[in-house]
Amino acid sequence: MSTRIPFVKMNGLGNAIIVADMRGRSDKIAAEAAIALARPDAIPFDQIMELRDAGGSGRDFDMRILNADGSLAEACGNGTRCVVAWLNGQADSTGGRNTYNFITAAGFVPTERHEDGTVTVDMGVPRFGWEDIPLTEEFRDTTGIELQIGPIDDPVLHTPSVASMGNPHAVFWVDKDVWSYDLHLFGPLLENHPVFPERANITIAQVVARDHIIMRTWERGAGLTLACGSAACAALACAVRKDLTERKATVTVPGGDLTMEWAENGHILMTGPAEFEFSGELDPATGEFRIADPAVPA
Fold this sequence. Notes:
single chain; about 300 residues; mainly beta; Diaminopimelate Epimerase, Chain A, domain 1; 2 domains; 18-stranded mixed beta sheet; globular
């Protein structure tokens, strides 16, 4: 078995993604390799989407997802769009298709590519029970739990909505510009707060209209990100539960706009773009890599 595997560096609204082709292999990308690749002098990324042969019926491929700190992620909507865009452009039997179905740690993920190049990902059904998120203590009303940061009598952020999109999310609602908050300082503290036994993605969100949310996210295991698809899903679902927005809205993240819809069947559909950057090969055990022609996707 060859040591190196082909990869493509892509982004979904700035969410830095490595699509790694692990089909036909039994090994996995090591946590140490992910950490090495995430170094500033390597290929800084938010998630690695490890594409694998289907381990059962009912899907085209399996996907294993790694964060920049080497931990595993259950879901990544922006990364899934990148995988679909890459697969669509392949010259082999997997290429040229507009629909693909995947299995991730979060479950079954159907997708569809549109004529304009955007991709819709069915992100599944959000869950709101405290034990599903999960939390370490019971909160009957998860539209706003007791959690704050800053002075007890004048907190900077407080009472977040919490939800699971297969991974845990906390959404803090604010009235001011989301850029006026030091998320780079608050994010690590809140991500690792004891109430979140599996850590959490931390989002600051402002509702500017019934069909428009602006947000920033500190992503669990990755840090500040230009886009987090599952966080956008959580924000929309929590906003609807609080009667702040309609079930379809534009969610603006630092990297651009996502079109979001909480469909009547309970599933959240996310539509947005994916962009190629460069291709190469990497060693899944060590993270050693070689970049090919930046202009030619693998």
